[in-house]
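Thread title: Can someone regenerate the structure for this chain?

I was given the following input by a collaborator and told the matching structure tokens would be attached. They weren't. Posting the sequence so someone can regenerate them.
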Amino acid sequence: MAALETFTQFYMQMPPVTRVYTSACVLTTLAVQLEIVSPFQLYFNPRLIFYNFQVRMIDCLDIDYYRTSCLKQIWRILTTFLFHGPIGFSFMFNIIFTYRHCAMLEEGSFRSRTADFVYMLFLGALMMCIIGLFVNLLFLGHAFTIMLVYIWSRHNEHVLMNFFGLFNFHAPYLPWVLLGFSFILGNSIIIDLLGIAVGHIYYYLETICPARFGFRLLKTPRFL
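Best answer:
Regenerated them for you:
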């Protein structure tokens, strides 16, 4: 009972945007793990999102599938960022990094700027989806995490970090250390590079441009 109260207190003390996004990631992964939904219903597929993908009745005996396949599957724009793979080491690693850096950004660089934080997340997701139209990328959750890590690292350049007790480095190198870790594990580094690229574009437009040229290209909409 005490453990449940401790967890509830910890959960409710999480920054609101971080709490919503992290919860959505965990619940989506659990839904896949429990076979409530399939990863095939979640991955990013522009054809299924933007076009009416129709299946001939003669080729499909499941009428319900025929009906849903004729609808634009808009939810994939969101779910591609929520599924971090089956529950295991990789999932735990990603979800911890997602929570940690999302929370540190929300409570640090974006403190009292919730609208700006939400707009940053939206722009990052939008850029990744646009790139996904031209590159075969199925799930973008890891890239989204790397984007958060990159933006946090650029705002905290003097923070000294340690990677599993192996070596020390300053925060700006963290995205590249994670990229190297992905390579060692045999994973594709394209997703890491995408997260780094999108994170750098946002950081450049939001932070470097105003300091160097005296004007802001990114302005948070008033309705946020």
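The radius of gyration is 19 Å.
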